[in-house]
User: Fold this.
Amino acid sequence: MGHAGKLGHRSMLVLDEGHNIEMALLGETDIEINPRQQSLYGILSGPESNSVQEYQRWTRQVVCPAINHYIQEEEKINHSIYNEKIASSQQISSARKTLLRLARFVDEKAPQEWVTWTTQERTVTVRPLTPRLHASRMLFDHADMIIIMSATILDFKTFIRNVGIDGNKCEFLALPSDFPKKNREIHYRPVGSMAHARQDATLPNLVEFIRTVLGELHPNVKGVVHTHTRKINQYLVTALRDFESRIITYSHSKDRDRALQAHCSSGRPTVLFSPGMAEGLDLKGDLSRFQIICKVPYPFLNHYTQARIRQDPAWYQWRTALTLLQATGRSVRSKDDHATTYVTDTEFERFVVRNQRFIPRWWLDAIRWPKQERQPGLSTENSFFKL
Assistant:
């Protein structure tokens, strides 16, 4: 709606799944210039250093003039073939959109608010660390009152800081879950650490646990296994070939919906194995009676994440908690629904104890620790913010 110029101004704006505001806005402000585009625009050199200031200089002196020149030359061409005319129009529109985003980066007076890098394949990425400098212009200025709804705002202070909301101009309201605890139990079944350095040693134990779940604990019902990475996903699917008649998975993100449709339409007790279904998945009723979370879903440590951690360490824990809580909600979709969740990564215990300050009490109370009702180290106080 923003691109079409029709968002306009209204008295109230309601944003559901509000925890996604940050990433949605970043997706509208970051810039990628891949080698094909560099060739198309005639960009013949790259930044001379890794500093953000150098990327600004390079963008101002090399990239923007090259894209402007490309647009001017392309507009001079009188395409006689309709498809070529359409393709040219789309390319010019894309180039102008890139220029607009680059202009904001070039004019930025706070370069510490940006992160830049170039991959080995020569793709250049320029991205704001947070959307807080852009959120008002792009979203919040369009309404007098805004209601943001989500089950996973979690760390209120981190959330408003990163999207640029003034803490003096907002109210935070939290309610406990009305889903019965017995319908959404989270069973901690540690098989080993899934930290990068220990993952290879843990994977065989994880295979055996999943084999027990599929063969003994839940042999005749549907479920989902959240693998978090493609590497883990591939290892598990390969090692569990004896259950291939039940396993549904995919290798590329474009096949995600196909796999989901196959799972939902099958009359067999199929199990989804996926590295990317922690959100946006509605496995209500018999579509999933169990789920396995193989790894505490820390964000991938790419250039952006590393820069973000240096600026705001709390953000990394918040993003992880957000994904974890979202994942546990994929199979229990109403207060009458039920499913059992298993978490197998030994890093889970440390993560929960460290971040219980902002993890909701209703979620913590659903955890079933081995041999004891409550794990030592967990506070019994309600974890909602008191404002």
